Amino acid sequence: MRIRPRAAGIVCALLCVGATALSTPAGAAGDGTGPASDTRSLSVEYFPGPHSEGRYTEVPATAPERLRKSGRSAPQNPELAPVSALQDSGPTDDRLDLVVMGDGYTAAQQGDFQADAQAKIEAVFQIEPYKSYRGLFNIWTVDVVSRESGVSGDPTRNTVKDTALSSYFWCADTERLLCLDTDKVSTYAAQAPAADIVFVLANSTKYGGAGYSDVPNTVGYDGIATMSADNAQSTLIGAHELGHSIGHLADEYTYDSYGRYTGPESDESNASIHDAAYQHEHQAKWWRWMGEQDPAGGTVDTYEGSGYYPLGLYRPTDTSIMRTLASDTFNLVGRESMIAGFYRYAGVLSSGVSTDAPVRWYTPLRVRLASLDDHGLAEVRLRWYVDGREVRSARGQRLVTPLQLGVLALRGRTHTVKAEAVDVTPALRDPAARKAATSSLTWTVGTR
Ligand SMILES: [Zn+2]
């Protein structure tokens, strides 16, 4: 289980099985937002400044009462919100589906939203390993129409805007914390063909954002990242939050007040109670990367302070995007976990030829590989096997027949043909991660 900050840990204990009703109304717990009719709350992460370390706090799951303008119907039926593909790279079952929606964009500003979504996505996908693995993503936009332009809390704390998702700065008394109504987000996310992760862009130039990693929802998504659309530094909030939801990474920053960690070994790949000597000796945690030059700077080692504890827990590098947004780079350990995470959602190999029914010796077996950046990190190899033996001459072939693979006389026997795609990128060293990066299809070759 992920180590969480103490305050949020209490929330998680209640929330990890779903939203919970607290004894005090959300909004009355010191966030200055006044009473709300909905008392569920959620733990969110935010970054008080563009170069700062993160913080966690508890916020209402839905919009506070003061943001609800009465008597006016919404300008749009959410179920009719237009959905388009910013990138449609394959079947949703084989892809990581990222849904992008905007808040504070009027009907006349939907073109602005599309441009902002495109720009934000391009910025996130400049960062490795997103860049090399973009082909494993589908990216959907949902055109969400708000009655007013801009969001609440911008430019001033008292600014109230009537927007579709009720986004607001000054959430929990914190200017840069950009919250929203997660139920409304879910309603719109349900319109996309699939949703694994949701980005919400607030129509604002003001720096801010938030990461919601445990949002109970029936749509199936694993997290919401909010960020201001027209602020370049807010992009890193989304990139960091996916580190949690996709890479299952720990925060590498610390709070002085936490002192020394004395609990069990962390489940997260980038936090450990063990120092470098122990990791080497026991082949534990990031021992495979120890001593390597790291793209985030310096060499991989054990740096004390991770998972909010300044003592007793180590991180792999001095800095990284999981420690501070002053860094825009995942360290080698984080990068490996991100890639393994991509492959938990997505597979690189697909085919239009069903594997459910036997194929004939002359059936063309055409396979498709996700289009990954092979000038970057990704390095996918395609191999073919007949009855478990590799047919080396068919390496890399995307179209073969069983006959071409050497399946000659069937005589009542059946054979199996397997196509296997393995990502042999040097960014994966853990055999378990490499296994996750392997996908295969198996056909039975029969006489009928
Ligand atoms: Zn974080």
Features:
448 residues, alpha+beta, Collagenase (Catalytic Domain), Immunoglobulin-like, 9-stranded mixed β-sheet, 4-stranded antiparallel β-sheet, 7 helices, globular, binds zinc ion
Describe this structure in words.
With 448 residues, the chain is α+β, with helices and mostly antiparallel strands. It has three domains: 6-245, Collagenase (Catalytic Domain) (3-Layer(aba) Sandwich); 256-344, no CATH class; 348-445, Immunoglobulin-like. It is 16% helix and 21% strand. The strands form four sheets. Strands 1, 2, 3, 4, 5, 6, 7, 8 and 9 form a nine-stranded mixed beta sheet that branches. Strands 15-14-17-18 form a four-stranded antiparallel beta sheet. Strand 10 (303-306) and strand 11 (309-315) form a beta hairpin. The protein is globular and about 80 Å long. Bound molecules: zinc ion (ZN). Zinc ion (ZN) binds next to helix 4.
